[in-house]
Write a structure and sequence with these properties.
The structure is a homodimer of 477-residue chains. The first copy, chain A, is of the alpha/beta class and 477 residues long. The first copy, chain A, is built from 17 helices and 13 strands. In chain A, strand 1 and strand 2 form a beta hairpin. In chain A, helix 2 packs across helix 4 and helix 8 crosses helix 12. Chain A is globular, with a radius of gyration of 23 Å.
Amino acid sequence: MDPVSAIEWSQVLMSWSDGKGPLHQRLAAGIRQAIRHGLLIRASRLPSERALAEALSISRNTVVSAYNALRDEGWLESQTGNGTWIRKDLGAMRIPQWVGQRDASSTLLGVLDREGEDAIDFATGTPYPLRGLPAEALRLSDADSERLLRTRLYYPFGLPELRAAIAARYCSEGLPTSADDILVTTGAQQAIMLIASLFLQRGDTVLVEDPCYFGAVEAFRSVGARLQTLPHPFHDARLVYLTPVFQNPTGTVMPARQKEELVTLAAERNLPVIDDRTLADIELEAIDPSATRPLAFWDKTGTVLTIGSLGKLMWAGLRIGWIRAARHLIERLVRLKMAYDLGTALPMQAQAAKLFAFYDQAKTLRREELSAKRDLLARELPPEWKFNMPQGGLFLWVKLPRGDARELAQVAMRHGLVLMPGSNMSAEQKHTDSVRIPFLLDEPELREGIRRLDAAWQEYAPGTPRYSPPRPEALSW
Amino acid sequence: MDPVSAIEWSQVLMSWSDGKGPLHQRLAAGIRQAIRHGLLIRASRLPSERALAEALSISRNTVVSAYNALRDEGWLESQTGNGTWIRKDLGAMRIPQWVGQRDASSTLLGVLDREGEDAIDFATGTPYPLRGLPAEALRLSDADSERLLRTRLYYPFGLPELRAAIAARYCSEGLPTSADDILVTTGAQQAIMLIASLFLQRGDTVLVEDPCYFGAVEAFRSVGARLQTLPHPFHDARLVYLTPVFQNPTGTVMPARQKEELVTLAAERNLPVIDDRTLADIELEAIDPSATRPLAFWDKTGTVLTIGSLGKLMWAGLRIGWIRAARHLIERLVRLKMAYDLGTALPMQAQAAKLFAFYDQAKTLRREELSAKRDLLARELPPEWKFNMPQGGLFLWVKLPRGDARELAQVAMRHGLVLMPGSNMSAEQKHTDSVRIPFLLDEPELREGIRRLDAAWQEYAPGTPRYSPPRPEALSW
């Protein structure tokens, strides 16, 4: 069992302070729930009261009270000098996966699934469904409905009209593509998952950027892959995952020469490369198309698998994504797709096919909306916070002048703000000094979020850094 | 490498004869495509010309011509006395999964994705979208659309109104259920996949019925599980998968006493049991509700995970399924769901929630439709074919008086009929004497299918059995 540090523990408890009642009761409830949900199985030993108090930026007495209550209720046991642990006889079914320990999903789950909560979401990367499209773009016609209601087919590859529309879009962008090169997926997340399942076995190495989109990390971990961050030699890797255009979360664009070298090198080694272009259409400035070209532009051997989605440009709720790849790979991926969900919802596919007619209009609408929000956020952040202004994408990648973003996120939660610490974007839990801040909310929410962020920072920042990594206590258990 | 018999090979080539041109050219094209699509990697050695000819029910000369052509083109190599194999230097990317070798997906893929083909589908288990519902049941209202278009949420657990509707349905059937016990999935297939991923690691054993729904077998195989067929001791298993009500494919119903014993035994061992009720609402007769009770009715410890779907009752194209399980399992499954597709399409969920108001009406409409089709099929099958009349579900499970259903399927394909041999429903490739025949097509198609089936049987059956399992040649390589 790997030891789990207090600050990692605090990630599992992310939203514990989000309820009502005294802090120690909320903390006890959070730990109780995490045990119940199996999030703490492997971390059967708890951090010391002092270490957890520091990681959560609360008083030691609060943790002492919470531990006492849980001991009384029979959830925890303690032994003087040996610490505190979760009672072993609580276990039930054997579940091999350690789900949700270090991942961002506990944080995200709260934000992605709650309605009418007061907390402001500065964590997720989902824009509002695009406004300003003609009404018919978002409704399925009676004729389309009736046509679909006459078919027994699942279309595991995707509805022919949608595959054709996706291929035509690539052609118009200078990348010759046939409908047979396209597999429609239930969002880009499924695209990543299918490719991970095709190429990776437990213990295989996948190369990712650092920082990196955490949904991809989750997918790779769920098939048991080991993650290495680039730069790293290609020879022992089985798969490479990249977001070269408007990188998630940094917003950077990989230079054309580097793209070309990378594709050449990968092709020499028959190494599949995922080019995740989920954010590539979110241009916030007028950009030369040559700068945002897909990796497939340089691919002569079929080593690149390109992922796209309508989620960010149009509407994530449609759950429409796709893979563009060599036909023989599409033929294999579709067999996995059949085991995963047999096919993507037909009405959504028919609607998506129609939305392609509005693609350029959507790019313009999104640019106008998001560049204004980006500028507002950039203007209003605490002036000592550093970031590079991104030309595209959905986020500012902000470096704190001091402190640990995980601790700041804890403080922010008590101010009614959900923050995503940089370490959640890192396969190696680095970037603890950074935060990914989306500019997606409408102006009043965005302003209120900035106000709460400022208040949390005022509370957190005046002291000296309260967390400096190699503390003896954190390492001792 | 496991040896692969000629008849297994023939499964990969299932639809080879479906094209135009002389038979030997079609066979060569089929083998070429299977190599290209990576379906034959592990089976690098080909069956002898005679063995393949028998398995495909064609002449040996046809196979000789096909092999010769492929040798000339550089796909195959031969050595006298050593047989014929796929050239090793054709390989490109290393793909660890052996996708589609023994599975039904190659057959199904053709049927699930093709429009306007002449072949009649006697293979897949998808009914037509239900007719006779009020028009408003199948359209999303403007108010619903607008509400969804204002949200950034993904609802990984499912749209609250849909979770509530599913829970209320269980309550009305006598199974107390809260919305928190429900996870909405992208069809029942994803439900199986998520549960497989949660409980199974490579090499773990899952217990299934024999015969069994092949989509479940595919999901379990895709996570590297080993399959054992029931009856089998529970102690070394990690998961049990059952379709107790209107079993797929046999249509049988497990007696209440057996259900109760099974749940008790599983609970004693903390062994999770999947109760897949995808077909349970397809009642073709008036049936006492106590006979079709879910396993969860007897579950006091949370050992049962119940799977449901609107796919068969209403419309598979919606891709709406769900899992009912103990809350702590739902909390873990949702984290996997986030890695798999983040959430199910929102408009489909809103529409599904409304469809629950028509649930009982839908059951009646389906019963009227499908019992008539069942009776037609049962009346028109060759009289020497044996089956038990099912009280529910979508299939007749038919035993051939002689011969091998895989060979019959090959002959049927050349008569323009896609058949699903029983071995595709068997984790152990048994039931080679059986065929699963769905009664889902409308009367003219159904009658034409029966006509082609009869013609294929007339061609195939007059001789003595051409395939008797333990042939020296099939075992020698």
